[in-house]
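Narrative of activities, Objective 1.

The group set out to show that a structural description can be obtained from nothing but a protein's sequence at a throughput compatible with the screening campaign. Below is one input-output pair from the validation batch, recorded exactly as produced.
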Amino acid sequence: MAEHLLRDMFQKREINGWEIKSAGISAWPGGKISSETLKVLKEEEIDAVDHEVTQVNKELLVEANIILTMTKTHKLHLENMKGVSADKLFTLKELIVEDEELDILDPYGQSLEVYKKTKDEIKEYLAGFIEMLELEDLQNMAKREFQNKILNKEILRGDMMKIAIGSDHAGYQLKEEIKSLLEEKGLFYQDMGTDSEESVDYPDFAHKVSKGVAENNFDKGILICGTGIGMSIAANKVNGVRAALCHNVFSAKATRNHNDSNVLTMGSRVVGKGLAREIVKVWLGEEFDGGRHKRRVEKINDIEEEMSDKN
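Output recorded for this entry:
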């Protein structure tokens, strides 16, 4: 989105001599930008239908004169890439304002209205960036001029984690609550349905979420039905999925530490909203311990492969 907005603004102001490229840290090379992005760009009379997504790489970063990121997490990620000069690396916001919140709102997986809000925010700060171009040579700008603007605020964006979330009709309201939590934490998620309390079949949504995790399109999945049991059973039919039914914080922690679970299931008729939020926070925050637990998970994988061969 930012690439097309900046290119359009450069053309309208007749600013020449700059090459504008965009790339994503978690992008799938060759993919297309989202339909929501196309819609909000169309409102600006920008046609980006032919845009192909590029994954960020060292070559792009080394060649660039200045690198602007949308979030502080993106910036920190790029700072850790060997050979990339931190002197030319900034969040878009820190160039323009002194603000504790250095992130541009990420609309991924959210409504069209959120995409519009993000577009407007990007346009506002790009306009400030262009004003700076008219005053200073950013190609020679030193990082020290902005050091007083860089704050060490806690990062809540989940290290670019991608989460698939789904529910049946019984779990719909709790799913909406968990989505609010993910938005608060700045986590990437995609809602795989259902979108109302009208009766549906839970295996359909368990399969959508679990397939996305098994195919590595998502790092983790969250599934909610009335008890969580049906979702757990259905999710564990998908090869590569280790779905864990959790109704307390201890189980959520243990299943990440010991089982390396990649799908969490909960029951909306068993846990309340407050407890569900705590379960999700713990489950997303814990790591796999490995060691003897790795051996045991590998044995689970062996069983899965054996049964797949028989089928």
